[in-house]
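Hey, quick one: can you model this chain's 3D structure?
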Amino acid sequence: MRFWARLFFAIALMLSAQSAGTQSVMERLVTPGPLATAHARLEATCNSCHQSFTRTAQNSRCLACHRGIASDITARQGFHGRSTARTQECRICHSDHHGRGFALVRFNRATFNHALTDYPLVGGHARATCAGCHGTSTHFRTTTTSCASCHSDTEPHRGRLGRNCQSCHSVTAWATTLPFNHATTGFALTGAHRTQRCMTCHVGQRWAGTPTTCISCHARDDRHNGTRGTNCSSCHSTATWSAATFNHARDANFPLLGQHAAMACAGCHGANNAIRNPARTCVGCHARDDTHHGSRGTSCANCHNPSSWANTRFDHSQTAFPLLGKHATTACAGCHGVNNATPKPETSCIACHAEDDAHHGQNGPECARCHTSRNWDVANFNHDEMTRFPLTGAHRSLECGACHTPPAQPTRIPMTCVSCHAEDDAHAGRLGTDCASCHGATAWAEQVRFDHALTRFPLIGKHATVLCTGCHVDKQFTSRGITCQSCHEDTHHAGTLGTPSSCARCHNSTDWRTWRFDHDSATSFPLTGRHQGLICSACHSRPGNPSEAPGTCIGCHRRDDRHRGGFGNDCARCHVTTSFSEILM
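Sure thing. Here's the predicted structure for all 585 residues.
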């Protein structure tokens, strides 16, 4: 036991005495064999690959030296990062200490699965040998994967398109190019350009600086021989060169409308664009089509349109004479004559319609005051607003000719009633000419109105209900007098109350039979006694002036005088009116 302890102590002493940079005696004693040629320089320093008494730390020592592989494992790329080598110990594949001639990398090149790397072998690469790409190098992971690194000698573009060959070519068929987004170059391929071979435009492998203008490739196809400039795309498209399209409205500021749109370019521009800038005015092309021979000026578009030269249109409302009613459907020649013989006809109605004037000029030339362009026969005239004689009542329904009788009556006729109604005047002119003072326009005979209060004889009482003819039986309405006896013959009193009779002293117009007369205050003979209550005729029995009737007793009672005048004529000396038989002494 003491032997092993002393031995262990001696070994530990030797290990401690050995410097860190050299192989210890113990390490030389336990080494399994010489290292491979690649590691031979590390043979004196075991701790470069091994850590004493810690076998699991060996991988970290390997990766510390082989940093490229370490980065592949970390990034999970390359063979070591994609295969099982990423998780297993390095020594399983790369065993050492087998002598200088031992190969650290051992794999069958014929059966190696290249898909475990970042570059699977497909297409033509599947038939390539390892040395064809990797050469004599033993570090396969450092071989570049760019096409140009292997194919620079056979690359037909001579580097002008860069080194990114796989953007156009594939490993399956090198000669067949992949679809290329030409739009990334700033020149998208459209129409027929999409089916062209690259070399059609990029002649002689000219890639950078290839011109993009149409004329640079199609100068020999330019039938215009440069007369239309170099901007071919303004008319032509990539879909088909022969089918030309040109936005005439935008690029030439002359929209092609109607039949212009169907015209061939040569129709205005001549063969081979001989007329590069033709006239833009209608008359510039259509002078020979002008049936007006210039009399309507050069602005043909005012009447004609490009859809149909013969189908004319003209906004007559822009003139001083808008076309309304039947004027709108009248042909131009109807007013302007054939071939515009009358360029500016008169605008008055009578200028064209003199032959249609049924008034023969009697109503003046202003036909539009009554007639409209919609229907000449229907007259429309606002007599109320346009004259000083509003039409009311029966006047409103009359025809114009009822008052304006052609041809004798002039346009301006008198506005008095008698000027039209003289023959209807039942008064034969004796009441003057102011018919409207009594008659109205609604009913001439029925609705007669007259304010009798404005005369010397206001109508009151029963007089107010009497018809005019009740007093004015002859319709002459001359004054018959304003006294009662002018109308009322005194058949009751027979002149006993005077002639002429003063009816109004007792009677009134409210009720003839209700009369009133105060004999006491109105005469000098008060009625007393038996005189009271007597009827008038009891005393006034003879015609004559009642004021002249005797005021003495004997004047009425002479035949009653028993004295037969023996006591004189003054009966009142003895008798009283209460009773004749009563005597006062």
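One thing worth noting: Residues 15-21 have pLDDT under 50 and may be disordered.
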